[in-house]
């Protein structure tokens, strides 16, 4: 790796190389990882099937029932490799409470890569089962040529307002009737041209300050995004952490205006209530899988700057109880309370009615899971999705007592502006 080379550009160069049809880029603080090619694969579908394949063997398919996290756990238990890391995504509909729908949509897609590149402290480490491929990757890492990047064509974010305001008004009415306390209502924004997803990733990441970032192409489905928060992070010692963000104002409009909106955020009763109930819910979820006296909140209601928006944020952590695993932690924390609502089951049911279409990867997670139980799962927001020539964005807002349709629509525009200005057409 050449000194001074941008890791973001190296990730893009690997994605553009043509060496890997399937790949995942995952950035966490201090570490960039490129996972390329398929050595192993697990696919979970909502029709009740899970497919696994390892090395070049024929895939096996079986029926699954119960918790989807258990289905994935069992699939990876059959992995023949002594040590492995897997990368991929899970859909919003992966949530246990949503399984009654049993639609045929894909719920999860993860790969154990053939080649893995990890960049830490400006040092690149390449591991691969294919020596020739490892040599090609090593050459790419020392090549000084920057990645090929197109020019963004910004996407307008203000269409669809009337329908969204109607949905918000309906949610406020249902909250007033006591059906639930909070629900996140989202809207889909089609992009009117095919997208260069890799260029969009580089352009957008340069302008954003995410908790995690990702770029993926699995089975032809592509996505990239700048995650504002972590759903579940579990280390090798069993410490689990989640980072609920709730409460939003615009950011990046100049020092004076940013300071004004920050004061609004920190003093607005609606935003404070929305955040406090989200933190309390995260605590209650961790109590289900952690030693109770280890559950704690740190950095309560601190302001997190995430691209075009700023949020109220906290960290909630604990130590997994004896016999509990990272899959158990994911099961109780997913979907993120900040992307579903309170109580979760009632909020998920409301989302199905109010939005009237599956979310798929939006408000799901991109994650990595390892043989030792370590897991890192990033909430998928501020993202772009592409399937063939079709591409779209999506954003939502947390609806609680005191929400107004106009303000919540404006919040979705602010969130969409984290990525809409950086979308690059495919040429």
Automatic annotation (TrEMBL):
Signal sequence coordinates: none
Keyword Metal-binding included in the entry's annotation: yes
UniProt entry keywords in alphabetical sequence: Lyase, Magnesium, Metal-binding
Organism: Actinomadura adrarensis
Domain Chorismate-utilising enzyme C-terminal: start-end pairs: 162-415
E.C. numbers: 4.2.99.21
Protein name listed in UniProt: Salicylate synthase
GO molecular function annotation: isochorismate pyruvate lyase activity
UniProt xrefs under InterPro entries: ADC_synthase, Anth_synth_I-like, Chorismate_C, Salicylate_synthase
Enzyme class, broadest EC rank: lyase
Cofactor(s) recorded in Swiss-Prot or TrEMBL: Mg(2+)
Matches recorded under NCBIfam families: salicyl_syn
């Amino acid at each position: 790796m050449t000194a001074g080379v941008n890791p973001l550009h190296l990730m893009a160069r690997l994605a553009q190389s043509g060496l890997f049809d399937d790949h995942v880029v995952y950035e966490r603080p201090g570490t960039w990882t490129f996972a390329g090619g398929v050595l192993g694969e697990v696919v979970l579908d909502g029709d009740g099937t899970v497919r696994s394949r390892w090395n070049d063997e024929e895939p096996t398919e079986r029926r699954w029932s119960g918790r989807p996290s258990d289905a994935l756990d069992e699939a990876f238990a059959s992995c023949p490799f002594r040590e492995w890391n897997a990368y991929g995504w899970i859909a919003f509909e992966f949530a246990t409470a949503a399984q009654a729908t049993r639609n045929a949509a894909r719920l999860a897609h993860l790969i154990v890569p053939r080649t893995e590149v990890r960049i830490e402290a400006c040092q690149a480490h390449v591991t691969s089962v294919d020596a020739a491929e490892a040599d090609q990757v090593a050459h790419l890492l020392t090549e000084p040529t920057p990645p090929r990047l197109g020019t963004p064509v910004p996407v307008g974010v203000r269409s669809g307002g009337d329908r969204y305001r109607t949905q918000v008004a309906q949610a406020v009415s249902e909250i007033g009737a006591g059906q639930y306390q909070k629900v996140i209502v989202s809207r889909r924004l089609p992009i009117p041209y095919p997208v260069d997803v890799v260029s969009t990733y580089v352009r957008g990441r340069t302008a954003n300050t995410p908790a995690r970032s990702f770029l993926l192409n699995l089975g032809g489905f592509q996505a990239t995004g700048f995650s504002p928060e972590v759903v579940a992070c579990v280390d090798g010692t069993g410490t689990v952490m989640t980072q609920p963000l709730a409460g939003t104002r615009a950011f990046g409009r100049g020092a004076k205006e940013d300071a004004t909106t920050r004061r609004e955020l920190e003093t607005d009763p609606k935003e404070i209530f929305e955040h406090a109930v989200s933190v309390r819910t995260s605590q209650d979820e961790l109590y289900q899988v952690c030693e109770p006296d280890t559950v704690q909140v740190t950095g309560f209601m601190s302001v997190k700057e995430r691209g075009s928006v700023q949020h109220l944020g906290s960290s909630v952590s604990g130590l997994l109880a004896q016999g509990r695993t990272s899959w158990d932690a994911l099961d109780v924390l997913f979907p993120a309370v900040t992307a579903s609502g309170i109580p979760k089951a009632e909020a998920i049911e409301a989302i199905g009615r109010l939005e009237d279409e599956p979310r798929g990867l939006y408000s799901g997670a991109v994650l990595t899971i390892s043989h030792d139980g370590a897991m890192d799962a990033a909430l998928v927001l501020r993202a772009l999705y592409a399937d063939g020539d079709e591409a779209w964005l999506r954003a939502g807002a947390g609806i609680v007592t005191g929400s107004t349709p106009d303000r919540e629509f404006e919040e979705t525009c602010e969130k969409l502006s984290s990525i809409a200005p950086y979308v690059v057409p495919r040429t």
